[in-house]
Amino acid sequence: MRQIIFEERLKSKEIVELEQTITEARNKSTAIVELHTDEEIVIPAKKGDALVSFVFSYMENLNKKYSGGPKPANPFLPPFETGLFITDLSPDYRLLFNKFAVVKRHVLIVTSAFEEQISPLNRKDFAQGYKVLLAVNGFCFYNSGPCSGASQPHKHLQVMSKFKEDNTGIMTLINNEARQHEGPFKWPVFEFAHLIAPLPVFDRNENYDEIGAKLEGLYLEMIKALGINTKLDSYNFIMNENWMMIVKRAREYTFENISVNSLGFLGNVSSGEILLIR
Hints:
With about 280 residues, the protein is α+β, with helices and mostly antiparallel strands. The protein contains five helices and 13 strands. The strands form three sheets. It has an eight-stranded antiparallel β-sheet, with helices on both faces. The relative contact order is 0.16.
């Protein structure tokens, strides 16, 4: 039943029209810098009974993100650079392209008025996040706090189309694991502080505001269980159509002084510096 309702939502007029809006805007935009992978290293790791793949990417043109002319004081408020604005999702949210795109469809859900990136996620954030991840057939994530890998202080969720994975990819493995649980759980593969929870089954008649309220309730339950103070602690949040995950962070930089954000917990780390894998 979950899969049937999910597929019905994918084919709904609202999602189809949003997907078309994103695609048409992407085809017209000349502002996006595509971050091409110059070298990719896939490292298989045995974690208990699971074989897990971690992908390390070297992107020389990632350095473009840190060079060039003066930057706008806040790129998430108008006037926007031509080619980055997609549409107004509601009076409270805008949809923008990420100028430095890791995948072709990498978009930002941005609050129309300034809110701090350390603000907890709320019902409206979840409503828009779930809607947009359906439209790009992807996942959304939120980097919150100084140790999370967040790069902008203005509140925003990021949504990307899914990475290509085989059966050792982390998202694929968590999809399989989440089917075995009814509530929040710790995945034995991960030794750090985290929780993963399958999403509720949404009724076909529920609107996105109602869906957002259910997702907010699950998020707050997990935040409390992890002992996270959203005003003080750093954490990463990831959600696809099947589950959500929260990781409590103690530091941003890991081996070789590489910054890790939410994508690192899906097994993907990118750098503009040479990675020395030992």
